[in-house]
Amino acid sequence: MKEYRTITKIAGPLVFVEKTEPIAYGELVNIVLSDGSTKRGQVLDTSDELVVVQIFETTTGIGRDSGVRFTGETIKMPVGREMLGRILSGSGKPIDGGPEIVPEKRLDITGAAINPYARGMPADFIQTGISTIDGTNTLVRGQKLPIFSGAGLPHNKVALQIARQAKVPGSTESFAVVFAAMGITKEEANYFMQDFERTGALERAVVFLNLADDPAVERIITPRLALTTAEYLAFELGMHVLVILTDMTNYCEALRQIGAAREEVPGRRGYPGYMYTDLACIYERAGMIKGQKGSVTQIPILTMPGDDITHPIPDLTGYITEGQIVVNRDLHRKGIYPPINVLPSLSRLMNLGIGKGHTREDHKKVSDQMYAGYAEGNDLRGLVAIVGKDALSERDRLLLEFADIFENRFVRQGYDEDRTIEDTLNLGWDLLSTLPVEQLTRIDRELINKYHPKFRTGAKKE
Amino acid sequence: MEVKDKKAKEQKQGVLKRIAGPVVTAVNLDAHMYDVVKVGKEALMGEVIKIQGDSVIIQVYEDTSGIRPGEPVENTGLSLAVELGPGLLTNIYDGIQRPLAVLVDKMGNFIQRGVSAPGLSHEKKWTFKPLVKSGDKVEPGAILGEVQETNIVHKVMLPPNVKAGIVKTIRNGNFTVDETICILDDGREYPMIQRWPVRVPRPVREKKNPTIPLITGQRILDGLFPIAKGGTAAIPGPFGSGKTVTQQQLAKWSDAEIVVYIGCGERGNEMTEVLTEFPHLEDPKSGKPLMERTVLIANTSNMPVAAREASVYTGITIAEYFRDMGYDVSLMADSTSRWAEAMREISSRLEEMPGEEGYPAYLAARLSEFYERAGLVETLNGASGSVSVIGAVSPPGGDFSEPVTQNTLRIVKVFWALDAKLSQRRHFPAINWLNSYSLYLEALNDYYDKEVSPEWNKLRSWAMEILQKEAELQEIVQLVGSDALPESEQVTIEVARMIREIFLQQNAYDAVDTFCDMTKQYDMMKAIKLFAELAYAAQIAGVSPAQINGVKAKNELPQIKFIKDYKPELAKIEKQMDTEFNTMRSAA
Questions:
Q1: What is the 3-state secondary structure (H, E, C) of B176-206?
Q2: A340 chain-B contacts, CB cut-off 8 A
Q3: What residues in B contact A371, CB-CB < 8 Å?
Q4: What value does the mean pLDDT of chain B take?
Q5: Which end of chain A is more exposed for a tag (fewer CB within 10 A), N or C?
Q6: Which residue of A has its CA nearest to B110?
Q7: ipTM of this predicted complex?
Q8: Cis preceding-peptide flag for A453 (omega within 30 of 0)
Q9: What percent of chain A has pLDDT over 90?
Q10: What's this model's pTM, rounded to 2 decimal places?
Q11: Which residues contact B8 (CB under 8 A, 6 or more apart)?
């Protein structure tokens, strides 16, 4: 392999190389330092005169005397069944002291788009055991449902609870967890690892760790490595894979850093104009394929800077993902775990995975009715602050109470509490029965007669 | 002679100089703007978007990883065009009219590159029935004959950009799209297929003002903010406010004869939902699968960005083609913001001077050019056809002041403002009745008078008035509570709640409620009005608001939505309402 010593400029994570042979766009590059160590990078821009290489690690030690080797191929990831139970670095090297991974296949990490025509329709209900997800923002296999959180909120705890409890009721198919950490602290990483070990989840997990002190640019490839692994497990080995990506905010910061180093015209808040497409190329790598067994379900986690949901990162994410679970600071302050605010939360694929044959026929309507009640009750809190409880009509007073019990009984649950969907829906009915029946306008009579505690067969007549 | 040929070949073949993502530069290439070129050894499809001295800048519709400087570039000399002819309906295309089903056959479940696939099947034979005979004079755009494509009759036309002539031979029988079906006196031969460059609007004889509503079966749209056939509408809204569901409802239920649905930079799973659901849905009018009248274009967000830019043009060209046959076409673009972002991304790769928020300065011009391709027209063959365009806009952070929303609003006539607050309380469709508007109301008045009821226009104004009044009253209620309002206004609040919860809320997932025809809309609104009249009268007679709110018949009214043959039930409720009020009044 030819080694060039024609570096002309090094700026941030970028290295500019001159007078090369024709170099392919996207090619993997090894930079050889004077001490013999190598660093990896990728071609971002190539022409006859100049090749721009983005380095995945720090550029510390790279000088004009460093050698540049173009490998002639795009970045590939060795994958294999043995990866389950392993801990890898953010660039895919084992860091658990175990042996190198013997690859069964080498796959391109960019991953091709699934042909929309070949996609299978997600319809398998995943029971996470968390009422605010199962009941009102249902997750289905093949969905990408991010957790929008803020600094200092227990999003990691929620993600772990989901990873631990997620199952498709009645199914025994093999499943796996792929966990990719980007720029999280060692402490947070330990928290995840300990929980994985405590619950025995590590055996069926592949962990990628890019920690806060690892090179920021490496974060660009970490989620891609994780998803390539997930796709291999899902579509070649037929497993159902849950991918947790945390924290996507750090990923986007890395993207901005590279954009700035390339002196690109910045978009909103300095993030590159192609961030939507870039994020889409990550998030869209979830789904199922018609006639095949496996699936990739994604739970990306991101912390909203300043809890601002209109910030470009949560905003663009929300436009790509199929809904969002919003972790809320007020609920957290009230001491409610999991502090999921159902009002701005949404699962777009919910309707595909619930109802008769999936969960229960009353699911959708119970959920809608609770939403409506909670939303209205929540609004009334503002009014009460001004006029006091006494000025409320009977109807409003009941709604106000509904909002409180909704938070305390439906939202609040234990870290290890695994509620079945029946429990969740019955709990919903219990709460709704505190409102007058006439007020349940979103539920038809038939269902009320069947499920409402007052009318349920065997229930006491009042 | 040979030398000349060689020279022509040389000019058509250039060399790649630089590759930076989806934008590449070639040299020594003789090219014109928007020529389609084949890039690299794998012959990836691209389009010329800038010419600078000897350099030709090309946007590539496929992933460019692994392409090197020095690889060849070939100019086809043609602009980006779509194939038009029998076989379009029921098809699912990517942004550059490659049928996705064919791509699955050719390269498996994932989209690889360098595979070309024609938009129409060139093998399939269609039964062509001529409608002209030899000796007839035919003008450009004239209908030569027809093919029963699905339950839709496909009219085969003379292309609009050719010279008129006299039919010498016209054939009858089974043909592929490439076989000649018509020969004119000057010897020119025409097959059923025609190719049309996507960036050029197809010509029409005259553009007319729309007068007929596009009935969508959605109460808030048909009832309060209708769009006309040939009109333009925008649905802006933050994520999660139900844009896509609304678009899909329109694609399913609008009474257009042909539907073109463009999934531009949207979610893969959502497209799958459309692809899986549509073939099972029935057209409420014909009873045939909705898919038979539909063309889908799916260029999801992770498919190449340049093809996303093209997808909108591909869609509208297909829509215009069916319009030229005399059909009413509705086109849904979900979402035009993704299209605008594709423009921005390519513009920034070209290092163009950015306009507002990094969007190119020509954003407004491109948007208005696109929406202007909608309209009710007299086609070249004298028929009347229309293209209605409904564009979804996804404003970042739900902020309507951003450039795509603002430039769109300057052009479109109907604005359906989606509201995240409404969707949070599960009020669907989450269209804000105070911010939305339709500029077609006046033009459509005659239609409603004749086809629905002479009462309808008054009824609609009444409902809007109540809703407006409610908004004002709510401000007071927020401060002092509803008990502080005068009793008549407490009734107004109740009536407004009924309009919102009974009329405006509609369940897209309920088998009956998902589509509501104009008669039912009228009957429902009339029932609410009846309640209002009885309630106001009762209040004057001294009945308290609490009693009025307790009327049992009122609570039955929402159930009407879910009943197909609702008339007997509604009559019963109205009667009960009357009785209850009478009893209350005589007691008061």
A1: CCCCEEEEECCCCEEECCEEEECCCCCCCCE
A2: none
A3: 424-426
A4: 90
A5: C
A6: A114
A7: 0.83
A8: no
A9: 55
A10: 0.88
A11: none
